[in-house]
Design a protein that fits this description.
globular; phosphatase activity; Metallo-depent_PP-like; about 260 residues; Purple Acid Phosphatase, chain A, domain 2; five-stranded mixed sheet; Calcineurin-like_PHP; alpha/beta; Ap4A_hydrolase; Calcineurin-like phosphoesterase domain-containing protein
Length: about 260
């Protein structure tokens, strides 16, 4: 059995949708996990959410919440305006057809099927089976038994590193492959401790020149891998359409559609 993980399109729309559809065509029996952050960043949030909602009707598809959907919920339900620092205006224009004041947008969004769908997945923070754990962002790598909502949606360094000052990659504390999105891989830098898996570099370096955002693998010998997949669609990177990653049941990365 294969798994497809597609996360963080951030309103990319058709270009990301086509990558997911191609992966589904090539691997028709694969479990599809959509990893969150469908909105904000680019102007096609409506088109992206229409596709996600359509996919959610398939029993072989799991749809996770991202921190951007959580910010939208917090705005509509509590008036929290953090969302407006993270791409809300483009999403509102896409979902409602034009911009509105915050009060008006809140009322109009609450009546849409998009808010209702996002509200229905508010507790979909991970998908886990015997082989894999898929999460939007991560968790406290030193306390894997704790699945704090805030970290599941927002974690970065707490999940990546054993030592956040030295930026040394942590070991995988679980006996399963972990796959995340959330953090564009071009801004991840860190070094491996002794015993990294064969074929991996000594370190990954931040790339703020080319902004290449490939799928990164973090693995030590004798452990299951961790994969970091965010392709940077939230940034102003027009050639980036997402990393749609296919894995086999043993945790090997089979193919990336990008």
């Amino acid at each position: 059995m294969e798994y497809i993980f597609a996360s963080d399109p951030h309103g990319t729309g058709k270009a990301w949708i086509n990558l997911v559809k191609q992966a589904q065509t090539d691997y028709p029996d694969a479990k599809l996990v959509l990893g969150g952050d469908y909105i904000d960043g680019r102007k096609h949030s409506k088109e992206t959410l229409d596709f996600v909602i359509e996919q959610a009707a398939n029993p072989n598809v799991e749809v996770l919440l991202g921190n951007h959907e959580d910010m939208m919920l917090n705005f509509v339900e509590k008036g929290d305006d953090l969302w407006f620092l993270n791409g809300a205006k483009k999403t509102i224009k896409s979902l409602l057809g034009r911009g509105y004041s915050q009060n008006k947008a809140k009322a109009l969004l609450k009546a849409t099927p998009y808010y209702q769908f996002i509200a229905s997945i508010r507790d979909n923070l991970s998908y886990e089976d015997n082989n894999f754990l898929f999460i939007h962002a991560g968790f406290d790598i030193k306390h894997p038994e704790k699945r704090d909502r805030e970290l599941l949606l927002w974690a970065r360094d707490e999940y990546f590193y054993e030592d956040m000052i030295r930026r040394t990659f942590a070991h995988n504390p679980l006996d399963k492959t972990i796959v995340t999105g959330h953090t564009p891989t071009c801004i991840i830098d860190g070094r491996f401790l002794a015993g990294r898996a064969d074929g991996l570099p000594v370190e990954y370096k931040e790339d703020l020149i080319n902004y290449a955002c490939p799928v990164l693998k973090v693995q030590y010998k004798g452990e299951k891998p961790r994969y970091l997949t965010d392709n940077g669609c939230h940034g102003d990177l027009p050639s980036h359409h997402g990393n749609v990653a296919v894995f086999d049941e043993n945790g090997a990365l089979v193919k990336v559609y990008s």
